[in-house]
Design a protein that fits this description.
By secondary structure, the protein is an alpha+beta fold. Helices cover 33% and strands 30% of the residues. It has helices at 15-23, 45-52, 116-119, 173-178, 211-273; strands spanning 4-6, 8-9, 26-33, 36-44, 62-66, 69-80, 87-94, 101-110, 124-127, 131-136, 145-148, 157-159, 170-171, 181-186.
């Protein structure tokens, strides 16, 4: 069953016109190929977004309905908004049924859980590619290619030229020459994490004070230091007070000593005058 895409002619062009189209829920696009002139078209956004989520929509011949006519096309490109679920632009190519086309078709792997390499060998299926580039006539284009893995043994690899392709379908020339691997069955490698060797610890014989004891000792040392400082301050203050008192005591004593001597001199002076 073919998928039908409804398109409408688009008269206006340019970035401003395309922004207005997107704001109105439409998607600008173009149709080209088959030796005909390119034509600007537009699509309903929601319908096109739903069809883009179908796998067959990307690798099948589609029927494009435009102006009451239908013709076969291929989806060649589309652009999405960076973070919104919004289609910005889409390109379709007309198909000539008499000319071979080049398409990328998805691969479907079958019987991966019952192949001998997995069931008895303990291996794991490891796909090297999920799609393949082929060339064929439009009528021979498959929606996908099946890859049967039921006979794969452990450590076996399947290459491009060993695939069973539908009639009229062949890989592109580059893949024919290179013949890359498609899928293999191998036992997964174990990831070994080396444990880090701890550095040798030197034991110190003796009692080690507990955290609480260390804190208490530190507190006691601080208190003793504070008390010593206070005592020194008191002694210095007492010394300062004693010095003025001693000076005051010395002054009267000196006056007393000078007093009697002065009196004796006065008396001797009086006796001489007499």
């Amino acid at each position: 069953m073919k998928i039908e895409v409804n398109a409408f002619p688009r008269a206006q062009q340019g970035s401003s016109a395309n922004r207005r189209l997107r704001g109105a829920g439409r998607v600008p696009g173009i149709v080209y190929g088959a030796n005909q002139a390119s034509q600007n078209v537009e699509f309903d956004h929601n319908a096109l977004l739903f069809q883009l989520k179908l796998e067959a929509f990307h690798a099948s011949i589609l029927d494009l309905a435009l102006d009451g006519q239908k013709f076969p096309v291929l989806l060649r490109d589309y652009q999405m908004h960076p973070w919104k679920q919004q289609v910005l632009h889409v390109d379709f190519q007309r198909v000539d049924k008499n000319r071979k086309i080049h398409m990328r078709v998805p691969l479907h792997f079958l019987n991966a859980d019952i192949c001998p390499g997995v069931k008895t060998g303990g291996g794991v299926v490891q796909p090297a590619m999920n799609d393949i580039d082929i060339q064929c006539l439009p009528d021979d284009l498959p929606a996908f290619i099946e890859v049967d893995l039921k006979d794969m043994e452990l450590n076996e690899t399947l290459h491009i030229l060993e695939l069973s392709l539908p009639k009229g379908v062949e890989p592109v020339i580059k893949l024919k020459h290179e013949n890359p691997s498609v899928v293999s069955v191998h036992v997964p490698k174990e990831i070994v994490i080396e444990e880090e060797v701890a550095a040798p610890v030197t034991e110190i014989i003796g009692e080690v004070p507990a955290e609480g004891e260390e804190a208490a000792a530190a507190a006691e040392g601080g208190e003793k230091g504070e008390k010593g400082e206070k005592g020194e301050k008191k002694e210095s203050a007492a010394g300062e007070k004693k010095e003025p008192a001693a000076a005051q005591k010395k002054e009267p004593a000196a006056a007393e000593k000078k007093g009697p001597a002065g009196a004796e001199k006065k008396e001797s002076g009086k006796k001489g005058k007499e």
